Amino acid sequence: MKTRIGILGLGGVGGYFGGLLAKAYLESDAIEIVCIARGETQKVIAKNGLKIIADTNETIVFPSLVSNNPVEIGNLDYLICATKTYDIETSFESLKNCITQNTLILPLYNGVDATERIQTLFPENIVLQGCVYIVSMIESPGIIKKIGPYEKLFFGSKNAPVSKLNELQSIFENASIESYLVENIEETVWEKFIFISALASATSYLNQNIGEILNNPENKAIYISLLNEITGVASAKGLALPDDIVDQTIVKLEKSPQDATSSMHRDLLAGRNTEVVSLTKYVVDQAAKFGVATPTYQMILEKLTRD
């Protein structure tokens, strides 16, 4: 019987990693990749395949199943989810009949509260923690564009069976996905959150890309203030992060494509719904809970929610 893996959310993250999985296991007798999509995305992928455009090559893969019909999707052994954070509850509602008590769920979201929110929906299931570092985006429905060579996936759990974690790691490795099964996954996820939250907040507030922020002393100072504030929140929560986490995060940003920006900034420019609640407001709310001052986050939140 095949191990069935659902990919929910075929955007920059889910589309890219889901595409690699679909390509690797297209002819597999042991593993089936199910791409969960609807509307124009479903139509395009069913007709033209899922296209991944990288710096030096293009890949087109035709997944064995692209559907949003729970009857067609059937029961899933693993569910990798990478929708926008504001879609978590809605997207899972349509899949509840595909999730059994044995379905292991791996969230790959920008925020840090996804695991808790999904666990509330499915208290009997094992919900992992995970995060990715990648610069990728939807160029058009069914077409994912990846910029730069950086693509790392981290996941882990304190209560999942080791055999299941190792099986998932093997599935990723066999699909040539650079993945890391880590013990201190909460700290790893927060390190990513510090990076993406400050970047999303700064780019959206300043309406500038990475290079424009780093090369302007005043704008860079705002970004560093955000890093210091969110690091203070993480410390108040008792997370054991590196002492030089702020410097490490700045180096990560300096190594990123300078003409790139955050997905939240792109959504803001396009007039779409944004993840400001998960990426900016969450920090302000947690700061208030632990008595940490976050004036820069507060200033940015007020502007982004006002506009």
The CATH superfamily name of the largest domain is NAD(P)-binding Rossmann-like Domain
Class computed from helices, strands and strand pairing = alpha/beta
Residue stretches low in confidence (pLDDT < 50, at least 5 long) are none
CATH class of the largest domain: Alpha Beta
Number of helices: 13
| CATH fold description of the largest domain | Rossmann fold
**Cα distance, first to last residue?**
52 Å
CATH A-level architecture of the largest domain: 3-Layer(aba) Sandwich
Rg computed from alpha carbons, rounded to a whole number of angstroms: 19 Å
What topology, given as strand order, has the largest sheet? Answer: 5-2-1-6-7
Morphology? globular
Number of domains: 2
Secondary-structure element order, N to C: EHEHEEEHEHEHEEHEHHHHHHH
**In which range does the helix fraction lie?**
40-55%
- Average residue-wise pLDDT: 96
Strand percent estimate: 15-25%
- Per DSSP E runs of 2 or more residues, the count of β-strands stands at 10
